[in-house]
């Protein structure tokens, strides 16, 4: 079953005379059990799209089915089985971690032993027990983020939205957060939809990715297929001593771009036997000190798409 | 969803308001300091003016009624104000909670606080000015308090609706609305002294009737308590519908997101 089926979703803000269209005809289908990423620069509409999917916002136009429910008509029922965690999460400042979870659990209608068990499980999963009695205002950004993730697990959602889950976190905490997201997905079988502008994060977590630009999806596929389809080739860096024929370098079959500076050649080329052999011949007159070949990463895909 | 689940959705707001209040030393100002300042000011003014005991009663009923209403209505407004100040409003509205859950939970907590303030003021007014607040009997006290809590619920909802329609700048409504009610409902004077056009407005506000009801026990004319309750229930029902509509509109306008940033 599809977790999300979005057809022609449009959203704009402001009065008629000063209207800004934020989302333009978004069509998307996400399978249940998938980790799906929405990438895009600031202002591309990622958070707006996630807010519509999580029913915080209503679209101006379009049809939206989430977990088999109409997101407009059955929004209340839908909220029982979804949840969201935001990067810059906030909770009432003077409530402790445990009190915030209790209050959030009560909002979902949990009570008695089930509420207590949900809180305990969420605290356990997010490793929050040492902070149980610490007020929100005294928590570090990383722990606040974990609290937000714990809150999002309280109602055992079938679909979890993560809005820039590692924004503002230091690298160590970001790595830990990503491994927690993987753990949640693995242990609970939850469908996860996340937004990020951090490419390695999307590459590490997501099965499929949609690139959003100016409110439209401009590419949607698996990370590896996106890289392949865009024909970005491979990045080859050669450090050498001596001289080479620069004109001949540009004429190598499959060469996409080349730059040479002070004994260092940065090349982007599509791999082919002929191209590699011509390249080796060109450098045979020079002394090669180091050679490095890299697959393009999503950063390259993103830059290519954003052009 | 079970009845107990629905009840816990209601209690979630009461739990939040209680937990925030018990950690805030300034809650004591809301519960004790300002109510007592208000009561003592009016009481001392009656001493200075050498008013008779009837006038003292008239003014004391107004002062106590207004104070309880202010305490209770701010608790309803806190439904959104606490979330807005902590920028956590998204968490509330992404959950399956409805407007009436939030209002009922806050009203429950507001009634507890209002009743505590009422007890403090009744004891203080008796000790300081010999005013016997319970002269009308317990039923009269109960009906008076219920009426005031209903009016508070409506005013609190108007504040919440204003926030959802106009954003953060509307939180000033939380403090100004009760002032407006004070002017129109005859807190410190009978509504008969108002210009006739304002008297019509005063007759549309249920608090006017609840004050007249309580003052009737001290010899101040007749009352129309049923009209007061009819109006109060109508406004609360209207408020709940308008609150749901405001939430619905806020989901379209994106104000819930802006209040969380």
Your description of this structure?
The complex is a heterodimer of chains A (307) and B (261). By secondary structure, chain A is of the alpha/beta class. Chain A has 2 domains: 2-228, 3-Layer(aba) Sandwich (Rossmann fold); 232-306, Alpha-Beta Plaits (2-Layer Sandwich), CATH 3.30.70. Chain A has helices at 46-53, 75-79, 97-107, 112-125, 141-153, 171-188, 199-205, 223-229, 246-250, 273-282, 298-306, and strands at 2-13, 20-31, 35-39, 61-66, 69-70, 82-86, 159-163, 191-196, 208-213, 216-221, 234-241, 255-261, 264-269, 287-294. In chain A, helix 3 (97-107) packs across helix 4 (112-125) and helix 4 crosses helix 5. The longest helix of chain A has 18 residues, at 171-188. Chain B has one domain (3-258). In chain B, helix 1 crosses helix 5, helix 3 (53-85) packs parallel to helix 6 and helix 6 (138-166) packs parallel to helix 10 (225-253). Chain B is globular. Chains A and B meet through helix 1, helix 2, strand 6 and helix 3 of A and helix 1, helix 4 and helix 10 of B.
Using brief descriptors, characterize the structure shown:
heterodimer; A: 307 residues; alpha/beta; Alpha-Beta Plaits; six-stranded mixed β-sheet; four-stranded antiparallel β-sheet; 11 helices; B: 261 residues; mainly alpha; 79% helix; globular
The class by helix and strand makeup of chain A works out as alpha/beta
Could you give the count of β-strands of chain A? Answer: 14
Cα shape of chain B? globular
Average pLDDT of chain A, rounded to a whole number, is: 88
What is the arithmetic mean of pLDDT of chain B? 91
Please mark out the parts of chain B with pLDDT under 50 across 5 or more consecutive residues, or reply none: none
- With helices defined by DSSP (H or I, 4 residues minimum), what is the helix count of chain A? 11
The level 1 CATH classification of the largest domain in chain A is Alpha Beta
Fraction of residues in helix of chain A: 25-40%
Structurally, how many domains make up the residues of chain A?
2
Low-pLDDT runs of 5+ residues of chain A are none
Architecture of the largest domain in chain A, CATH level 2? 3-Layer(aba) Sandwich
User: Rg of chain B from C-alpha positions?
Assistant: 19 Å
Q: How would you sum up the major sheet of chain B?
A: none
Strand order within the widest sheet of chain A?
6-7-8-3-9-10
* β-strand amount of chain B: under 5%
Distance between the termini of chain B: 32 Å
Pattern of helices and strands of chain A: EEEHEEHEHHHEHEHEEHEHEEHEH
